[in-house]
Design brief:
single chain, alpha+beta, 6-stranded antiparallel β-sheet, two-stranded antiparallel sheet, 6 helices, 13% strand
Length: 231
């Protein structure tokens, strides 16, 4: 009980020390796709903010101009969560699976809003006129070979030190991905993981989930991710 009280006190202190610019963002009201208004801090990841639901060009959705953004100058876990939640991945037609799934589109939207954009097909010369986020195979190759020039680096959470580093990173509001050739997921803030399977992710795919334990995301042994962080 003493530990629990201490944790609650610490959370209260952290909230009280929100930077003024982050606090201003979190206290703004935004309009949702369904017309309702809600404070940014109360977004739940199920209903997207108006304008974040574009299906124009599907299956090659064009990048969005996000309503809620973060940069390396204002990282905070609550802001990172709000960036993720604005896309309402669980109820957004933009990511609804059809003949295709849209993990790359969702990850691209989130990382662009975090100020660390993932490459488009035009960027990698796949299609000079296509501004959609590249597919997972090309994205994974880029993360392994070229992403370091854009501030990405790999961490290994299968080691105790790597797991600690990854959690400290996202819990400070800094972006991270789990990726392999067939899938990419966003690593969320608010981690208290004892293993890789315990890591909390947001993903689009066959199942669109805003906040789920990696081991419960339905990816099975097919998903063999490596993990990447950026400032």
């Amino acid at each position: 009980m003493l530990n629990r009280r201490r944790n609650v006190q610490q959370i209260a202190v952290d909230k009280a020390q929100l930077p003024s610019d982050v606090s201003a963002i979190l206290n703004r009201e935004v309009r949702l796709r369904n017309g309702a208004k809600v404070r940014v801090a109360n977004l739940d990841g199920r209903t997207p903010v108006a304008g974040m639901d574009s299906i124009y060009g599907k299956p090659g959705q064009l990048p969005l101009k996000a309503v809620i953004t973060s940069t390396s100058q204002n990282r905070h876990p609550d802001l990172y969560a709000a960036v993720i939640h604005q896309f309402g991945v669980e109820g957004n037609p933009r990511y609804a699976p059809d003949r295709y799934t849209y993990c790359n589109t969702f990850a691209g939207d989130v990382m662009r809003a975090m100020g660390v954009p993932l490459p488009t097909k035009a960027d990698l010369g796949i299609n000079k006129r296509d501004r959609a986020t590249v597919g997972t195979q090309a994205l994974y190759r880029w993360l392994l070979t070229k992403a370091g020039a854009q501030g990405w680096r790999e961490v290994n959470p299968n080691t105790p030190e790597g797991l600690r580093l990854l959690q400290e990173h996202v819990n400070a509001g800094k972006p991270a991905l789990a990726a392999d050739e067939g899938h990419v997921a966003v690593i969320r803030p608010g981690q208290r993981a004892n293993s890789v399977a315990d890591l909390r992710i947001a993903q689009a795919g066959a199942r669109n989930l805003n906040n789920v334990r990696l081991g419960d995301a339905g990816l099975g042994r097919v998903f063999r991710p490596r993990f990447f962080i950026n400032i």
